[in-house]
Structures are given as C-alpha cells and as structure tokens.
Amino acid sequence: MKFSWKLALLLFFVSSLCSAVVAYAVFSTVEHSYRQELAIRNELMARTYMREIEHYFHEKSTDLVLLSESKALEGCKTRQDFREQLILFNNASRFFMSLTLAGSDGTILADIYGIGEGEKLALPKHIRLEDIPADNTLLFGMYIPRFDKKLFCLITQHLCPEGKVHYLAAYLSVDYLAELIHQTNELSLFEREVVLYDSMGRTLFSNKQINHIFEPLPASLLSIRDELLNLDDSGILQRGDNHYIAFAKDRGFLSNIQRHWTLLTVPDRNEKIPYLKTLREQLLLIVIGIILFSAYAGYLFSRTLSRPLLELRDIALTVAAGKLNKFPVAKGSKEIMQLSKAFAVMLEQLNEARKDLKSKVSERTRELFDANLKLSERIQDIEKMQGELVEAKEQAEKANKAKSLFLANISHDLRTPLNAILGLCDEIKDENLNENQTNLLELVISETRQLVGLIEEVLQFSRLEAHSEHLAIEAFSLKTFFTNLYKTTQHRAEAKNLELLLDFDEKIPECVLGDSLKLRQVIGNLIDNAIKFTKHGHIKLKAELLDRRHQVLYLRFSVEDTGSGISPDRQKQVFESFVQGDKDTARFYGGSGLGLAICRRLANMLGSSLEVNSHPGRGSTFYMDLRMKVGDPEQLKGDDNNIALAERDADGGGKRILLAEDHPLNQRVAIRMLEKWGYHVDLAENGEEALRLFDNHKYDLILMDLQMPILDGFDASRRIRTKEKEQSLNRTPVIALTAHAVEGYKEKCEGAGMDDFVTKPFNKKELRQVIEKFTA
Amino acid sequence: MRWSHLFFLIFFVWVAGCSEREKPLSLSVVQDWPGYSPVILAARNMQKDHQTARLKMILSSDLKNSEDLLRAGACDMICTTLTNAVQLKGEGVPLKIVRILHYSSPLDAIVSGKDIQSLSDLKGKTIGIGELNSFSDLFVSKSLEEAGLSLKDYSLKIVPPEGIADAILSGKISAGHTYFPSLQTALQKGLIVLTRASEKKIQVCDVLVCRSETIERSGKTLHEFLSRIDEASELIQSDTQHHARELSKDIAISRDDFIRSWESIDFLSARESDNELNRHLQGSRFSDAIKSILEFSKTRGHRPFRIAGDDFIYSRQGEHLE
Fold first, then answer.
1. Residue B91 near residue A210, CB atoms below 8 Å
2. A114, A146, A209 ranked by CB distance to B126: nearest
3. Labelling B185: which of A13, A262, A266, B149 has CA 20 to 30 A away?
4. Is the peptide bond before A733 cis (omega within 30 degrees of 0)?
5. Closest chain A residue to B125, measured at CA
6. How many CA atoms does the CB half-sphere of A308 hold within 13 Å?
7. Contact check, Cβ <8 Å, A98/B155
8. What CA–CA distances, in Å, run from B40 to A178, A590, B182, B281?
C-alpha cells in the first residue's frame, strides 16, 4: 500500500476514534445536564399540575357547597322539580358530569340525566352517610355502576327546609384531569407519564393508564411511594444515570377531603428527547466531517510529502541505471532540494571512487595473474614431488614385504635346526652319559634355548614395532597366576641361593579380566632379570590392591630385588632397545637388551607403564600400575596347573596322530616326543602322502607342516576339509606346525581350515597342551 | 479492488449502520364494524406484499382496547369515532386524523317499541345510551333536540347497544341507541327504527387516527397504507361477495350480514377524505361535527378546549384539493 494511503487510513482511524470519544463525552455531558434540567422543569410541572388539580377540586367542591347552601332546591317538591333545578345549576355553573340528589337514606331522588333514580348512592366501603360533612365536601373516586364509569365524586350534605338531611353528589369525569394536565402540559414539549396517587397507594389518575385508575399503584412505583413518605412537598428522585422522577405533594387544599395526594411525572427511561436527538445527529455529522476532512488532509499531506520523495526515487533509479551522470536538483521544499544536492555530491564522490577503483582493480588483476603463474609452477613441482613420494612409498612397501619375507624365512631357517638340535639333545640325554657329558649337554640345551629365546625376543620386538601385537582379554585368577609364576621360577632362584618371596594382597578379587599371557611375559621377564642380576639376598614378587571403584581395580605389581641396582643416569636407558645396565653387565650376562624394552611396550599395551626405583648397591624395584576390571569367577578356566604337563609320560591312550613333516630331524624329534606321550604316530613326508593316509585311516589329530614338497600344508588341509564335507565325515583337528613364527601365518592357517598353530622349535608344553586340547 | 474503493465502501457501510431502522407501523382495529373492513383488507394486502415488515395489525373486539393501546403508545393507528378521537385528543394523546372513513350511516339508529311512533313521543320516557359523552349520547341528545325535547324532558339510562332490544322489551327503557349488528337483532325482535344517524343534520364520522410522531417517523409507509385503503374499498365494492369471504377470517360479522351492511355505508374515497380534511378551516361537514362534539362534551362536564387544526388533522395540502 502506498505511504499516502497508509497515512490517510491512519488519520482516518485515529480521527474516527478521537472524534467518536470526544463526541461521546460531549453528548454524555450534555445529555446528563439536559436531563437534569428537564427533571427540574418536570418538578415545576408536577407542582403546577398538582396546583391545578387542587384548584379544580377545590373549585368544584366550593360550587357544590354553594349549591347545597343555596335556596334553589328549597322550593322543589317533586323529583322533576329537583331535576330541573339540578340541570339549571349545572348549566349555569361550571359543568359537572352529573349532579345527583339523594335522600336521607341514600336513595337517589334526582339526577340531571335521570340515571339511577330510585337506586342507592354508591359509596366506598369505608365511608358511611354519617361521615359526609355538612359544610364541606368528601371526595372519593370509584366505579359508579349506574354510569358504568370510574368517576370522582364530591358529596356534601344538603339540609332541607323541613330539617331533613339530603345528600348532594357531584360526579367529575376522570378525563377532566387528563384534559387539565394535557392543556397545562401544552406548554411543555415533552410527553411524560403523570401519575396521581393517594395515601392508600391507589392510582387516582394516570395519563398512560386511564382505565386502570382507582387500582393499586404498579410495583415499579410502590417503592417510590415509600421513599417519598418523609420528603418535602416537591423534588426529584434519581433512579439511574439519567432517569429523574419529579414529584409534588398536595399542599393542604384537599386535606379536608382526602389527605396526601402525590403526583409523579415519570419520563420514559428510553425516551428520545428531540433536542438530544438533534444534538446527536449534529455531533454525528461533525464527527463524519472531521473524519473525512482529516482523512483527506492526511492524504494531501502525505502526497505533498511523498511526491517529491518519489520524484527523488525516480531520479536515483535513472542515475543507478546509468542514464544520468549528474544528479539534477529536484523541485520541492527546501529539505528536498538539500537532499537532492546531497545526492549530487554523493554521486560525484561515487564517480571518483569508481574511477579510482577501476585503476586499482586492473593493477590487482595484473598482480594476481603473476601470482597465478608462480602458483601453477609450484603446483607442477608439488605434483612431481608427489609422484616421487608415491614411488618411494611403493619401494618402502616392497622393502617392508621383503623384510617380512626375510624374517619369515630366517625364522623358519633358524627354528628348524634349533628344533632339531633340542630334540636330539633330549634324545642324547636319555643315553647313558657320564656326568661330564651330561653337564656339557645341559650347557648345549641351555645355550640353544637362550638362542631360541633371543630369536623369540627379536621377533616379538619386531611385531611390537609394527603394532601387530594384540591383546587377548580373558578372565583369570591373579592369585593362581602369581602362585604359578612363583612356583615356576622358585627353583631358578633357589639354584642361585636366592630367596623368592611372594606377597599377594588378599583383598584382590579372585577373578579379573586381562591378557594373562602378556602379563606373564612382563612379570616373568622381570623375575628372570632379578634372578639374573642378584647375587645374594632375596627377590620379592608383590601384588597389591591400591584402590577399587565399583568393578575397577587399581593394582600394582612389583618385583623387588637386592641386586646391584641401577645408577640414576642409567635408569632411563634400561627401557630402551638394545641397552643394558652397563657394558660389564652385558658382557657378563649376555642377552639382547630387548627384554625391558619389550616389557615396557607390553605394559603400555596393557594400559600401564613400567617404572623402576633403584639404588646402586641396594637393589631395584620394577613395578607397573595397572587398571583391571573384576571378572566373573564362573568364567575361570581350570587351573593352569600344567607345569609338569610336559613331563608326564604315556597318557595319550594310544590315540592315532598323523604327522605330515618333510624335515627328517623334525620327523624324528616329533615322533619320539609323541610316542613318548603315548600316541600312535603315522608319518607322511608331504601333503599328498598325508591325504592318502587320511583316506585310509581314521586319525584323532593331524599335525601338518606348512612348507612341504609336492603339496604344502595349506592345500593338504583344504582338501581334507573338502573330503570331510563330501563324505560327511567328522571333523579331524588339524594343527599347523611351522617355523614361520611371523605375523599373518595364523590367519592364513585358519583360512585353510586348520584348527590351531604351533611354532617350531616345539615347546613340549605348548605342543602337548594343544594336542590334549583337541584329543580330550 | 483499489484501496480508495475499499475505503469508501467501509465508510458507507459505517454511515448506513448509523441510520435508525424504521419500526413497522402498527394498527389496531375492532372486528365488528363493517365500516372498518377496507382498512383491514388494506392492511392484509400490505402485509402480503411486505411480509409484515412494515405494517403490523392488532384485531380487537372492543374499541376501548384499541384506544388504550394508542394512549399507551403501544400502537400507532386506530379506527374510531370522531367523538372518541376528540376525547383522546382532549386527554393529550398526540394524534392526528389521517383519514375520514365514512359519515354517520343508517346502521346507527334509535329504536323503540311499536307504541312509540316518533321521537317526540319519548317525552317523559327513559332512553338507553351506551355511555355518557359518547357518540351514542350525542346522537340521542341531538336527535331529541331536533324533536323539540331537552334533557329535562327525558331520562337516560346506560345500556350497552347489544342490550337495548331486551331493555325495551322488558320495559326498562322506551327507546335506545343501537347499531349494527345489534340493530339487526332489535329489528328482528319487532322493534322499530325511530331515526337513523344518516338522517341527522349534524353528522359525525368514523376516522383513522395516527400518533403524531408516527406520521413524522413513517410518513412514507403511512401514505402507502392510505392509498391501499382506497384500493381495498374499490375491491370490496367491485366484488363484495368474494371479499366478504376473504374478510371473514378477520372480522366478526357473517358474510351475509357484511354484504347487506356494506351497501349501507357510504365509504369515502381518499380524494373525498382529503378534501374534507383540507377544508376543515373553511367550514365543512367535518368541521361542524368537531364543533358539535366539543360543545356537547362541555355539557357533560368536560373541560372546554380548542382544537388547533394542524395539530389534530393530517392535512395533505395540495393533494385532492378541490
């Protein structure tokens, strides 16, 4: 909507509201005061009516008394005489509606119309003939049956010459009061209900209810009657905001006839007074005029305001469209002209700024172009470098693969002869050797095992470096764990005359969750080191509960010794790879220097850190703080009581095992070991032979070397699983035997359908555990 | 729609809402006087055309009821006698005569037993009238005055028109004033007519009166209604039988009685009525009637008053003036 229309509408509504409010206030005030003034006039009217009525009845009363006292009736003898006299009097005086003469017993003797002659005078119940005064009149209003009308009646005594008392009654039409009030009221412009009532609460007159006279006052006026009892002769009663009832009481003219007449003038509550009506119409016209004028004025004003602005807008749009270079001065008021001048100045400045901007933009564009050139050259260099990096990466990956292959091969090539050596040594031990030979053989076995351990350490270190070691979380008993550890190492400590102590905190729950093998490796290594570097004294293995929060345990495992200790400057270095306490130590004790480095890395994997407290000459304490969850004791496996497992003989129960192995020494060692444990062994020198034997015999277990001529272990295993499936045979456990103790082989074996994995050289205990696991 | 149009539309609706809605015109008519039948028919015809939105009719069995309604402002118009209209005016009821319906008709009569041959035979007798200071009183008084009898020569007795025949036959009165349809009954009972209102020198009339403020407020509706009265009269005149049947729902007169009585009534046309009303200042049958009524009411104890023509008569100046 246009601004001008908005303003016009706004002014329309505002002026409508304001003028309506003002007009209403003016009208209400005027109406209120005017009705008050009318009420005062009504009071005056009421007094006037009352006076006229009093005067009327007084006059008629006087006329009747005069007639009763006149001698006109004295000569009358017959009914006709009386009647003629009454007619004459009525015609001569002011007219009554009727005149009646009654005898002393109240029987009507004569009436000017002859109506009701011979009947009894009608009197109200409370008035007797004796109550009728002699020199005054009694006034009452009632229904007179013989006239079939409600009439006022004035009655007085008439004394006949004979001394008889007659009664003279004059009847007055109620209409006369209406006529009286109307003719008095002609001066007034307004019609009011006029009600006259007596002290008994009977309506004597009502110009609105003329047929209901001589009946009780309507309920609406009865309350007024009670209120007026103690008020003055005349006044105003307020019955609402603008409703005033005027009243006037009789002043005593009628008091000798009937006391306490009161006259009310009652305006209609909703009366439409012409003056107010006219005022309202005029006010309405004024309001309409104001509204129209204000709306039009608003429109004109807004147009005056908006037109130059719109022109200014059009000019600005033209300039914006580039059709004008200079801003013309707009016509209009001073402010508009100043505004257009300001626009012109602004436009000039804009033009200058635009020119400046153009030159700056072209300069910046050139610079940007140069920068782009340099950038593209740089991008080419980076792309070239990226290609080189990719190539280097590929080479590194190839080198890594080659390293892995090398490790696998060297591992296999080292383990296979070592396995054979250890096996042969075990065989030689059973021969009748003298003490010196036995000692030498033990030395060979010991050194070979050290060599195997060294290889194991190197391989594990390489796995840790490559982050290919994984945790195997399971439930186990820490108490059993430490007890077993204690038992397995105790004899070594005793061999060096060292005291091995176990301090286990009994508050530690029975079952915990963790990787027991890695923990065993760390703690075992620490104990080995302690035994190795302690000459006398004791070694203390300690497990304590530091804290417990719900199901989480905060534990400290420590190995304390009374050895030579480590100097503070060497304490940090002992955890580094290939570093030992000192050069003398290395020379004296040997070893790769990887033990503590592996331990620390394993401790890190377990979520802990391996630390040392040491004082040279007094000993060292290696400890690790570990957080472990409490496990479910029901998940605990049987006791790891396999210390003597490898030493037990012949409990295989004659179960049949197929050994697929191509290396003669390994064949020999394995067969000897298995037969010693009580198993019946069939040998296959390659995979194909193994398959053939599998077809002809039922085996409880197959030990399968992976690297064999003709058909390797992987393919042989796959074919066995296929045959089982085709012939619906029971699954025969296949255990892989390999010297390839490198990462990835275990998964490859599982993929070929093998059930477990044992590395060469055989660890008797490990091999027997696996075999018993699958043949149980 | 343009905003300016909407603006003015709202404005006109608002102004229209400020104007006062016209109240329907209300009319009260007695049912047993055939002289009022054109008024009833006109009202019915107007109601048919305007679905009572502009005219409301109240049928009454008693003239007093209609007069009370007018007096209290509960209705705007009534049909009544000129005598009563003058009395109402004297009381201060703000009314104007808007239409003369008809003058005294043969349906108003003084009846007696067959022993009475003329009005002059009523000297010393008792005569029945309906009410003091009424048309009945006036008619009897003036008739006897023409026959040379004054008030002292006879007595009056208040007897309603329907009781006149029985009162004569029982000897309570010798003669009395009655009118249709009681007149028919009286004649059937063997009474005779001594004189009829239509034979009198001074005649009064039946009129349609309307409250003064209504004339100002609903002048247009009133004019339409007045013209419809003329149409209705012509309709009844042209096919009395048909309209007698149609009117039988609203009037308390049998069809045959209506047909017979309608012929006796000389219903004034609008033109004749307006001429009478317009000429009341120059002297006419109508102004004589008012004068007689005012003088007569003085003798019946009423306050003498003067009637200002324009205040009492709705004179449509220039219309139907001859």
1. yes
2. A114
3. B149
4. no
5. A114
6. 16
7. no
8. 31, 146, 21, 30
Average pLDDT over residues A512-522: 89
Average of per-residue pLDDT across A642-648: 46
| pLDDT digits 0-9 by tens, B217-265 | 888 889 889 989 999 999 998 888 888 888 888 888 888 888 888 888 8
Helix, strand or coil for residue A339? helix
- Which of A1, A172, A182 is nearest residue B3 as measured by Cβ atoms? A1
Instruction: Spell out where chain B has E strands.
Output: 25-30, 55-60, 77-81, 95-103, 108-112, 126-129, 155-158, 175-179, 192-196, 205-211
Q: Which of A2, A182, A190 to mutate to test the interface with B (most CBs of B within 10 A)?
A: A182
DSSP state of B269: P
A119 touches chain B (CB under 8 A): no
The mean pLDDT value for B287-304 works out to 86
Contact state of B303 with A91 under an 8 Å Cβ cutoff? no
ipTM over 0.95: no
Q: Could you tell me which of A707, A530, A551, A702 has the C-alpha nearest to residue A628?
A: A551
Range of weakest confidence among A73-77, A267-271, A503-507: A267-271
Nearest chain A residue (CA) to B73: A208
- What is the nearest CA distance from B274 to chain A, expressed in angstroms? 27
Give tens-digit pLDDT for A314-349: 878 887 777 766 767 767 777 778 888 888 888 888
The answer to whether the Cβ–Cβ distance between A96 and B157 falls below 8 Å is: no
**CA of residue A687 relative to chain centroid, distance:** 71
Confidence band for A191, pLDDT divided at 50, 70 and 90: low
Q: Does A176 touch chain B (CB under 8 A)?
A: yes
Amino acid at B1: M
Residue of A nearest to B303 (CA): A176
pTM of the model: 0.55
User: Per the structure block, which two tokens stand in for B236?
Assistant: 């009844």
